[in-house]
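Milestone M4 deliverable, item 7.
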Amino acid sequence: MEFTTRVSRRAVMAGMAAGLAASSIPAFGQSGQPPVRIGMGIALSGGLAAFGKSALLAMQIWAEDQNAKGGLLGRKVELVYYDDQSNPATVPGIYAKLIDVDKVDLVISGYATNQIVAAMPTVMQKKKVFLTLFGLAANDKFNYDRYFQMQPNGPDAQAEFSKGFLQTAMTMNPKPQTIALVGGDAEFPAIALAGARDNAKALGLKVVFDRTYPPNTIEFASVVRAMKATNPDIVFVASYPPDSAGMVRAVREVGLDNVKMFGGGMIGLQSAALKSQLGASLNGVVAYDLYAPESTMKFPGVEDFLVRYRKEADKQGVDPLGFYIAPLAYAELQILGQAVEATKSLDDAKLADYIKATDFKTIAGDIKFGKRGEWAEPRILWVQYQGVAGNDIAQFKEAGKQVILYPDRFKSGTLKYPFSAASK
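Output delivered:
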């Protein structure tokens, strides 16, 4: 499989290099029809680039598959994208350009809550249907009726995100009594920590540490020492990739001898890059995830997709595992494509109405949207890293390294605790 691109270097805003590209496309009949253009901003540089590149590759595979079947509405599909540099400040300009200058037919989001929230005002003003990649409760304050979200948080995303972590913690004997909450000072961690705070209160857990750190923090040992001094039973962290890695390293440096369970919504641990860097340091960590190579998660089509994805990822130097974002990025465009073909239209209102009313079959399983465009039924996974040896990335393709603890219907193993013992 080969992907060809054509690239434009016109800046979206001062200092931003932008790339315009189209997926490799088979020959079409002499229809003379213009392509169906799907636009997005996506992180191809900066701290979120590992996930952005993985998502883009999955979308390119979908576009190639769709074009091999005749495209959409008998027209070839093109993906138009610009690097948002992992910086939400670039996003409004990107979407204004996509809609007003590039005249794309449809828009989808790039990766992460901060980027989605930044795009929402422009998308809403233009009344575009908006499928998004992994925004935690991003539509709660907008309540936009053409918004649909691919992260399986369920209708109450803020509460659901940490629910499985804390329910898993409450299975320990004796039950935990205290909790520490810590995360970066940004949109996603703030929402995740707010939900964890409410869930902890409902379970009768005493919050003994509750702090955020600046987004540019690079030294985490002092944060961990301050947290350790409060002697929590469990620790819930909400973090983006650079600080997730920093936090794990700091925990290994400082030690959490009395903590029974450590982990949380630590974005980045799902990527091959951090798995390889951290290796056995991940043992014992209980982390949020969306897919793990366990026997309980064999959805039709996903294994074939991962084989194809990995073959191309190896050539491009993209995340070689493809578990976290790639299946849902492909599924996102499956949903959009199915809606276009079913309605025989690119009209945003018709597409939104169809997506609201439909159960979709995808390589990431069955998907139905509910209130505020969230999944009607939650499917957030909580996994514990167990038996990781060294830094060989190939081991993470095997079952048993990321044991699913929650939810019960996907459970593939049991929690090891306390954290000091599970870390070995």
